[in-house]
């Protein structure tokens, strides 16, 4: 088994892996991963994507890549073909990336949210001293959604997303995730600057699909402009939406605002003949899991969010 720096390869060398990876995303998660793979190809061919590939007898067996962001490293992807010994190759690729990241000045944190296709990634992450948080990938066939049709509470109004909302929604995220488990998983949630980066990633870049402003909503006080709740939605395949963010300001939680936002997004997707909606949730966030199950979501895959801290 040979481990090769991605910057020494052309994307054509990894094409069999890309096709396999796209197949698993489509069949297991109802997600068209091809736009993300197009971006990965672009960065590989420009020699600007850091990571490694595993090659066995000149055949690509797996690859992984990472990015640097301020004080932390982010494992952006790791895929090993089920046709090869996944656990051993995954361990090799992750070890190579972590060796580089841990030797990089000022990097004191590494985050990884990796979707397993085949063998579990948890033992490999634990062996590398990651702290794991269980997460669920949930799917709702929209025809089976259990909607309550409850009106929004008096004194509140709902608006569609517009691009003037970035600053106020970054503030909302930072406040909503203070002392929340998801802030432990993704430290972008912990500051307004980080939350702004997160918003730009999910709204402008294709990593979470194509953003759909017509199915993304904000709740505000009738007398104010600062949002107290929001839901953001993307398209991840034809007829399939994905909730990329939903949050409600502390003090307003537990009053049905989150359910109202989800139902409003579901109705918007239904009116556009979407067939399904997916989302991810941290298992420790029991109230959110109950809400999604009440709406008709069911878990179709579990995975771990891992954090390594120096």
Short description:
This protein has helices at residues 15-29, 34-45, 86-102, 122-127, 166-176, 181-185, 192-204, 257-271, 286-295; strands at residues 2-5, 50-56, 59-69, 72-80, 109-113, 131-141, 156-160, 210-211, 217-221, 227-237, 240-248, 276-282, 298-309.
Question: What does the model show?
Answer:
The chain has 310 residues and is an alpha+beta fold. It has two domains: 2-129, Gcn5-related N-acetyltransferase (GNAT) (Aminopeptidase, 3-Layer(aba) Sandwich); 139-302, Aminopeptidase, CATH 3.40.630. It is 34% helix and 32% strand. It has helices at residues 15-29, 34-45, 86-102, 122-127, 166-176, 181-185, 192-204, 257-271, 286-295, and strands at 2-5, 50-56, 59-69, 72-80, 109-113, 131-141, 156-160, 210-211, 217-221, 227-237, 240-248, 276-282, 298-309. Strands 1, 2, 3, 4, 5, 6, 7, 8, 9, 10, 11, 12 and 13 form a 13-stranded mixed β-sheet that branches. Helix 8 links the parallel strand 11 and strand 12. The radius of gyration is 20 Å and the shape is globular. The model has no long low-confidence stretch (mean pLDDT 95).
